[in-house]
Amino acid sequence: MFTTLSILIPLLPIVGFGVIGLLVSPKSTKLAHSISIGLVSASLIIAAGSGLAYLQSPESDKALPLLAYNLEWITFSSGILAEPLVGHFGILLDPISIVLSLLVCSVSFFAQVYSIGYMDGHPGYRRFYAYMSLFTGAMLGLVLSSNILQTYIFWELVGLGSFLLISYYFEKPSAVSAAKKAFIVTRFADLGFLIGLLILSFHAHSFDYSVLLAQAPLMPAGVVALACALVAMGAFGKSAMFPLHIWLPDAMEGPTPVSALIHAATMVVAGVYLIARLMGVYLYAPYVLYGIAIIGAGTSLFAAVIACTQFDIKRVLAFSTLSQIGYMMLALGSTTKEFPLGYTASMFHMSTHAFFKALLFLCAGAVIHAVHTNDIRQMGGLRKKMPITHLAFLIGTLAITALPPYLVSGFYSKDEMLLALQISGHPILLSMASFVAMLTAFYMFRLYFLTFWHRVPSPNSHAHDPSSPMLFSLLILSLLSIVSGWLPFGESIFLPGTEAFHGHPSALLIIGATALSLLGSLTAYTFYKRKTDYPEKVYAALGAFARAAKDKFYIDEAYIYVTKQIIFRRFSQPLERFDRNVVDGAVDSIGSATRFGSAKTILATTGMSQVNVFTFALGLIAIIGFLLVSTR
Amino acid sequence: MTITIYHWIALSTLLFSIGAYGVFTRTNAIMALMSLELMLNAAAMNFISFNYYLAPGTVSGQVFATFVIAIAAAEAAVGLAIVIRLFRSRGHVDLSRANRMKN
Lengths: 632, 103
Description:
Distance between the termini of chain A: 91 Å
Number of domains of chain B: 1
Radius of gyration of chain B: 17 Å
Strand content of chain B: under 5%
Structural class of chain A: mainly alpha
Radius of gyration of chain A: 30 Å
Oligomer: heterodimer
CATH class of chain B: Mainly Alpha
Number of strands of chain B: 0
Strand order of the largest sheet of chain A: 1-2
Structural class of chain B: mainly alpha
Order of helices and strands of chain A: HHHEEHHHHHHHHHHHHHHHHHHHHHHH
Largest interface: A-B, 10 and 14 residues
Largest sheet of chain A: 2 strands, antiparallel
Number of strands of chain A: 2
CATH architecture of chain B: Orthogonal Bundle
CATH topology of chain B: Helix Hairpins
Strand content of chain A: under 5%
Helix content of chain B: over 70%
Shape of chain B: elongated
């Protein structure tokens, strides 16, 4: 029954968007959030039911996809295609789509419950819930889509949702420019995705994932590599991988629940999900996969270094998100047919990361709500004033740093990723990932100590724990951040066509990773528990490197240089001049010629009726004369 | 002297030319309208004379002449109405000064 209902999973929130946006009056705030939260919980229940139904189906033993729906939607036929290309609209259930749709529904649910408290009294309250519904529905459509064309459509729709929610405070110029930046950068990357999907579907004669995966071995290797690289470009844009990462830190201009839902838990992992979805094709482009692993590792290191230098609580978390998604890409890129553990580990980390990063963002939102600033230097000492937020943030920090006690989720997924790198034989990438784990521990505990322990001259005396809807979300997400690591992930989520993985990381790996994380967190402890001058000393000792890291390695400036100085100056301005002088000039000269002719012929209209009659008579005589001459 | 069709054609040509001359030169709207009537009558006369000489025993030319007279009457009514409106609005019926449609 649930598999037939599964089409409602993406449809309900999208319908909710229309209802809230068009029918609910802006004043009925309760109705707006009830509709939105009610529909997302309905989607959550249906998704859970579909997941259970899938587990009972024979496909689940081999992690094969189950097509719950496949409606014919549009047909392209053209001379160069041997047979018409059919675009379907379908629902595909397989382990990763079920896991991610459950994640999207639950994180969206908690973010929306949290927003009842967080967004209370904002003038655009109804608009906020309408956009949240739109985004949730689009994300679910993307996750559950059965073909790459449908994925692309919803891919753009989540981009739209992200754009609308980043620019939610549209009276702030910085929010507007951040939204534009996010939209333009991801759109630029999506161009690659579009071309890649067209190449793939042209060679496979279908958009459906099942056909694409089946046809991949038969395609020429160069074509597969090119298409995979182009699709990966789209994935890098959405998942904010270097060098297309520049939009994500700025996207923090949106409300904090939006950052938690879209820019930490769901939309930014869409790129990871897309590559995982097409893993059967990527296996035939091993160099592209290797490149993905390298870019993932590089982004992970690069973002972790920047995160150590930032002072805006949301930006630190944004760079941390970049770093963690880099991890997922790294694990995914290490996947091969022989060692498919990277796929499992990446999906595992995607799920645990969604919970603990959403938790961290929502805690950050509660802190910002209480002290009215994003700057961690002005927070400090909030541990006693916000005890529950403090506890939730600590759980999130322990989860992301994978420290003992080994109860929280991040430990399991992170060690599985390190294990995947170890057994697939990438020692350099493994050491990079371990180093990033140490940096992660450092910047997360730096954030933790600066926010909750560090003493500041002017304590925030009126700060207190948030209201009950916000606390509810924090507590349940803390719980989920702990227990999501206990799930037997490797048993049910593995690359189709391979075997489930039953091994465990070796003690050496666990001890090594823990030692590095401990080193990082102890450094943060000594630096930031009390006010010390160590940070300044280290900052000064590192010199130019530290300054560059603080300015995010000047990537934004490089983009501005390339776009303004090279693209605008060298290409756009000459083209603009050509357009203005030659193209517009041609059109203008038609107009001026007509005006000139009119100015001369206007003299003939005297308005004298007798002149008109005389001219008419002359014309008549001329015609008669012509007829007489011509008929002779 | 017998009267042939040529005499009639000459007469109607003369009438038509006098009418055309009047239309082109008279600036008084009433005079121009009367000249127009002359031209119409010249045409009607042609119909009758051709009917009489070329197709004796039939009446089609005479029927046409009757139509021409009827149309001339209607046209005179419309024309005079325009002249009256012109006089009411301008205080004169001078065609050379009724040139507001210029340019």
